[in-house]
Amino acid sequence: MTDASERVPAMRLTITDAGRAALLSAKRDGFRETRIVGVGLSMKAFDATPDLKKLPYQSGEMLRSIAGMQVGEHQIHLTVKDEREGATFPMYGFGLYLSDGVLLGVCSNTQKQGPIMVKTKSSVLMLSIDVFLNANTEGRFVLGDVSFAVPPATTIVQGVLRLATQEAVEMGAEPDTAVTPKTAAQTFAKLTGAVFRGPVTTPEIRADRLASFPSGLEVGPGPSLYHVKPTSDLNGNPHLSIYGQSHGPSGALPLPMSINRWGGQLTVGNVPLGGTMQLKVAGTASAAHPPPTDSSELLATTQWVRALVSDCAVGQIVQEPRSTPRANHLVVNGALLSRERYPQLWRYAQSSGLLVSEEQWLAGRHGCFSTGNNSTMFRIPDVRGEFIRCADAGRGLDAGREFGTWQDSQNRRHSHTATSDAAGHHGHEAWTDAQGWHAHDGSTSEAEDHQHISPFGESTDYPWGKYGDRNQHGSNGGKDNDNSWPLTSPAGRHRHSFGTNGAGTHAHAVGISVVGDHLHIIRVAEEGAVEARPRNIAWLTTIRYQ
């Protein structure tokens, strides 16, 4: 038989999702009776998660040699026996199976912690398991035959007791071990009196019991001497006076002192009431902190301040000039986070009023938290590269806007100056319509005073009447001096007028060729980038998670 050489520390049994479903009644209004029929042993360490349906690294078939019984109000005891010959393996964890084959719960040591037990070829592995259940599952399990069960002894069940060591008895922390007379004698004082070798702490010496010390209580011998003596005032009210050496020798021990009387006062030195003094405390001083809503003059402890700051600061958005988030902060980048790892931030998200579904978040509600996968994860807002705009809250400047919604960039309504393309120098074809036949009035230019020569002669050949040739003869053209050159009468300086037939009053129509329907290209200069934005500076934005 192989057993653990030392007591195995308590391990957490994880109830699987399938096991939890098997415990629920058909109407899901309570739990039903369930039978545990077997135990599987794991040969390697594994992550005990609720989604497991089969025990990882199980050694062979599940063991049905189990027994158990209820030994406490919320406790059941199981005993498992592995008698398989030739089986050799280290056992890191185990799983409990129900009668329908469902894996109810799992438990495992880590690789670093090492195996719980080791099974060798010729040994019988006996495993004793105590399972502590909450009130919701109490009494709902039916176990196998208890003929070989060896449960631990409790106040209501007979069983096996483990003997406590001397150190365990002195610490007084183990609730399920037995004390032998020897260890008890070295720990507890006899009723007839005992000699204490070591410091003795008396939590309270009440004034009404000071009669037990009629001569006072002396602490000594040693480098210092203190005397405690009961006294009374004139009215018989008891007092406790403490006397000591004003200046102890070198190496004198300090005097621990506590004053817990309500309304009492401690005066050190000759400082009058209402005065001030400096109090120096060696070591670490501790005190009970006031309630969170306290506003009195009570001293605030570091625990009180830290709890107050943490409660107020979780969920706060911080913008600062740095490249990485400080401690307890995350970049607001829309990441999916574990609800178990960030419980305070998840509680803040639930109370923020801006917790939406994952579908709504992906549709544009990037300024909100999302429920993530609706079980173990949640999503934080994503504000990277965004400007923050204050919510309208009924003012009307951004009416109808929901909290946490994303809004695209937009410019204010305005106009631009536009120009068309230059067409260059050009003309257009034109004509007038026809007006019919008509005449126009006019005149000739003036001629100076003159007369006209009227030549004549006998010759039919040239020059038959050439100007200036006055003596051509007869028809032969000879000169016989008998021809003369007559001239017309002088007409003087004059002009000649001429006229045309009038066409009447009329107008001319001008036509231009039609070019058909057409458009002119208008060019508006393009400017800007892919978004509208003001002048800005990029800082890191984080959210506090604890």
TrEMBL record:
Domain of life of the source: Bacteria
Comp. bias regions, Basic and acidic residues: 438-452
Cited InterPro entries: Phage_tail_collar_dom_sf
Span list, region Disordered: 402-504
Matches recorded under Gene3D superfamilies: Phage tail collar domain (3.90.1340.10)
Name by which UniProt lists this protein: Phage tail protein
Species this protein is from: Pandoraea fibrosis
